[in-house]
Amino acid sequence: MSNQPFVRRYRNRLTSTGPSGSLPAAGRGRVGYAFWQRYWAAFTVVELPMQEQHRSPDGLGDPGPPDDPAGEFNRTSPGRYVVDGQEADVRLEAVPAGAGTFTVTVRTSLAGTRGDGITVWLEAEGRYFLTLLADDGSGTFTGVPAGRWNLGVLPRPENSPQDAVVALPLSRAAADLAAASDDAGTAILKVTLPDGRTDLALHRQGAREYLLEVSIRDAPADPEVLMVRYGTADGGVQRVLIPVRGGVALARLPGYAPATAWTVSVPVPAGEVRSWDESVVRTSFLAAVGGRTKSAWHAIGAVTPQVQRVISKATDQGG
Question: Which of 7, 81, 195, 260 could serve as a FRET partner for 236 with CA atoms 20 to 30 Å apart?
Fold first, then answer.
């Protein structure tokens, strides 16, 4: 334990000063926080995240310099950054939410249409929490654990409804994954969607197979559906629908190419899906893994004739 008096250590933590060996500088933030926020952080021994930290586009690379054009938030001056090609103020506000977690609000000056469709992520303990900026330029993350936080932004999804589709952080490239240790398990990316109740886990099996696990807290009895849109190894684009019944689903992502842009829609009740493209339904049904995900498809087919026709045809052909 440090031999500094408690009052000195407390003051150092509050003001982000003191011996360089006391705490890593990257784990403490002072700029952009009100005095009461620094006071509370010092009192509860919580590390405020640095608001001037820079990350590479996939959020997994080495931090870049303030003027690095590849950085997520490119600093132009203290407290001001370039977000999606626009200069804006960016700051965080964290409120304790119990059980060692926080509700975190990101506030930017991108009000109105300037912020529409921009996905902001906050990474904590290897999980990415996502939010979509609202009309006032703000977004909220829930259930964020205490510790060091990294913040970044993802570009607007192309050719997608802005209010329903969320850009996802990129997974690592195939070469990086091949060199990675398998000690941590098969999950290579963990994400919590803006609704705060849907978790995604991207898994790698073998050299080329990828599966997406979906978990929904407080899931209703009837199936909910989300759509994943991603780039494929041959340069194309694939869409996969994943129905979730009972809170859990698992599906393969045929042809998925790591480190390419991909998006997901927030889950909606199956009855609210506007259209059921036959080719997408067939691909998605064949991609379903496990009895629970298959049964979710059959439950949808029982009340949706066009879906049932596709399922029956795929089943008759040995799918």
Answer: 195
Structure tokens at 294: 């298959």
Task: For residues 182 and 269, state if they share a domain.
Answer: yes
User: 20, 23, 59: which is closest to 41 by C-alpha?
Assistant: 23
Sequence letter at residue 207: A
Same domain? For 199 and 301 the reply is: yes
Q: 10-residue block means of pLDDT along the chain (319 residues)?
A: 44 41 34 47 45 33 32 61 78 90 91 78 94 91 92 76 78 54 69 96 90 95 95 93 96 94 94 94 97 96 96 84
pTM of the model: 0.74
Distances 171 to 13, 21, 119, 260, 262 between C-alpha atoms, Å? 35, 34, 16, 8, 10
Other CB atoms within 10 Å distance of the CB of residue 96: 13
Domain that holds residue 144: 6-18+26-156
Residue 205 near residue 188, CB atoms below 8 Å: no
| Tally of domains within the chain | 2
The structure tokens listed for 317 are 């052909």
Residue 112 lies in a domain: yes
